Predict the 3D structure of the following.
Amino acid sequence: MKDVKIQLSEKDMPRQWYNILADLPKPPPPYRHPVTLELMKPSDLQAVFPDELIAQEASTERWIDIPEEVADVLKIWRPAPLYRARRWEKALDTPAKIYYKWEGVSPAGSHKLNTAIAQAYYNKKAGQTRLATETGAGQWGCALSYACQVFDMECKVYMVRVSYNQKPYRRILMETWGATVVPSPSPETNVGRQLLAQDPNHSGSLGIAISEALEDTVTHPGTKYSLGSVVNHVLLHQTVIGLETKQQMEIAGEYPDILIGCVGGGSNFGGLVLPFVKDKIDKSHPNLRVIAVESMAAPSMTKGVYAYDWGDTAKMGPVAKMHTLGHGYVPAPVHAGGLRYHGVSPILSTLLEEKLIESRACHQLGVFEAAISFARAEGFVMAPETAHAIRATMDEALACKESGESKVIVFGASGHGHFDLAAYDAYLGGKLQDYEYPAEKVQEALKDLPKVK
């Protein structure tokens, strides 16, 4: 029999996170203060993050130990399996070898739990009793809700309104784990009240939800803010994905020609690819292609500008240099809610600028076409976010069919789509529509970029 999945044992689980800041030829520019635009000091972040996460954010140590208390929880689902998509290869009639790293095995159903557990642990250790956060599609909100339950903390989630309405079962899952969930913009913050006064039916955005969570954090004692993507320490915690994948590919006797992942803020993509990008930097595998796939509704890497911008709509959070569509940009309400952020990780932005990775954007009709092709062959129904990686994988596999090349393609399967069946129903019923890239809307949003010297 031909192997379909490659499993690692618990003793093979990574004991350290990999920090690419130790190896980048050019580090990301430093954060700026949201008000003064001066360089931020670590103390400027203490209102929102505990000291150990602040230290990880700036660390240039190549390896950072995973605390035993965190590893003990990660063992519930880690190491995650690596699958060979043999049935899909046959369906596509491609000579390509397709592998996917399956993160849907976590209790929360996605990769997000890898950092949620770590962040809840460090906050609990620092004496916090409550965490506030935002969520787009709901994957991050679910992960943090469970992590807070593990470490006996309260959790408040501001969920982007369009996703709150589209995905009620994610809200129910968060509440099952004890979280309080409200649609954003909400009447519970000044930011939310102002936006609802302008438009009572506002669909929301991740930038707005971040602003609400930050306002909640600084107005509630014992509370810190927790972020599911974009920042350095989140990508650090996610590198368990790529470190495991490297071990599994060694067992398979293969090394990827192409690595593919979907990108909203960059956490699952960064977690998969950063341990491999190190091999491009040190020239051990200089020809590796690394492809970031985003939604055409929020194509920050492919059509945004590389500039300093606020991470949230109300300009409360740090100013980072990244590929951005403007902090005031509100994307179309596509079903891939986790890919609707206006910016992207400063680390990934730097890699794109240095041409160590490439990017492309996809429309949602083509994305669901690929996801259904995959589901009918492999069985797994993937989240709309993951479906973007599947679309790019399908395109590369079909290119191999044309060229006759047997390339090794690995993509990140960041989460299951069990709570996203309304999107599949809309596609199958012919009711799903594409959204064109709104160039004028982006240009308007970009007029309000900070004036950084």
Q: What stands out?
A: The first strand starts at residue 5 and ends at 6.
